[in-house]
């Protein structure tokens, strides 16, 4: 079991260096575990050396099987905890990036609410693009994913949480930053390169109809980097862009009606029925949304 955990951690953190602090082991000790595991299996799991770390073809298969087995053991521990009326196991949670600035869904409050009750639950939290979150849910590597899911998968269930507003921006060094609002039209914007998130390309670009030199990014930080460079126009969630707008580093083109809303959802596997730790966190997430909405309504 220790060899399996060590191997999966090394694979997930891209090598011995990345896994060292996570495992609390030295690189020589990690190397010994991997070598002993390979001897026991009878074949090589990974390439390591000056050329870098990578899994062999057999190593990739072993990793998937080991990760599945470790997840099943963790879920079994949670099932046993339920029989003892005890919350235990590991809650595997995934988010899209930059959720921390979304005050309509304060994720930190949901986590605080969950750990406000007595439990022995560990938390594994990862940040991934929506399509990877859905893939990890289907593979059993995640229990819950929170984000924008436009291509709904039939093997997953989705619960509406809130709406997220997106605005269209340019950076301070862009030629349009100082231009008068009355002089900027949709045709004006179409003359400049645009950056778009791959998972929102259709939603983001349909209002422009046609844009030149579209750059593709996988997350919001990359999108913000391109827009603040002054070389690209693009959409960002208004809650995420606010920090640069307030510093005078971004300008929004609100007068053109390009602002749009996306649905922020919670996704889980459609079956089997969720364990208590998963069900309770889902309830805490929804309760957090209701509290945030109520506080916003009161001003």
From TrEMBL:
Keywords: DNA-binding, Transcription, Transcription regulation
An example molecular function term from Gene Ontology annotations: DNA-binding transcription factor activity
Transmembrane residue ranges: none
InterPro entries, A to Z: LysR_HTH_N, LysR_subst-bd, WH-like_DNA-bd_sf, WH_DNA-bd_sf
SUPFAM superfamilies registered for this protein in UniProt: Periplasmic binding protein-like II (SSF53850), Winged helix' DNA-binding domain (SSF46785)
Domain spans labelled HTH lysR-type: 1-56
Family the entry assigns: Belongs to the LysR transcriptional regulatory family.
Protein name (Swiss-Prot/TrEMBL): LysR family transcriptional regulator
């Amino acid at each position: 079991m220790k060899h399996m955990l060590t191997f999966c951690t090394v694979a997930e953190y891209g090598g011995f260096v990345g896994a060292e602090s996570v495992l609390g082991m030295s690189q020589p000790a990690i190397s010994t575990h991997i070598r002993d595991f390979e001897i026991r299996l009878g074949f090589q799991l990974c390439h390591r050396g000056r050329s870098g770390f990578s899994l062999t073809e057999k190593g990739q298969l072993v990793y998937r099987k080991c990760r599945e087995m470790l997840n099943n053991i963790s879920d079994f521990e949670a099932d046993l905890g339920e029989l003892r009326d005890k919350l235990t196991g590991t809650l595997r949670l995934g988010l899209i990036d930059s959720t921390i600035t979304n005050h309509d869904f304060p994720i930190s409050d949901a986590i605080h609410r969950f750990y406000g009750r007595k439990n022995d639950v560990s938390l594994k939290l990862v940040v991934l693009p929506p399509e990877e979150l859905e893939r990890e849910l289907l593979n059993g590597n995640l229990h819950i994913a929170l984000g924008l899911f436009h291509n709904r998968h039939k093997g997953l269930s989705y619960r509406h949480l809130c709406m997220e507003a997106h605005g269209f921006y340019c950076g301070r060094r862009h030629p349009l930053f100082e231009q008068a609002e009355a002089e900027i039209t949709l045709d004006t914007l179409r003359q400049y390169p645009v950056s778009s998130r791959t998972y929102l390309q259709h939603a983001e670009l349909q209002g422009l109809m046609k844009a030149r030199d579209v750059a593709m990014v996988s997350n919001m930080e990359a999108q913000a980097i391109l827009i603040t460079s002054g070389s690209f126009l693009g959409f960002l969630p208004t809650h995420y862009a606010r920090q640069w707008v307030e510093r005078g580093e971004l300008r929004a083109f609100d007068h053109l009606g390009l602002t749009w809303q996306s649905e922020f959802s919670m996704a889980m596997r459609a079956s089997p029925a969720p364990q208590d730790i998963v069900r309770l966190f889902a309830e805490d997430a929804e309760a957090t949304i209701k509290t945030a909405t109520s506080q916003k309504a009161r001003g």
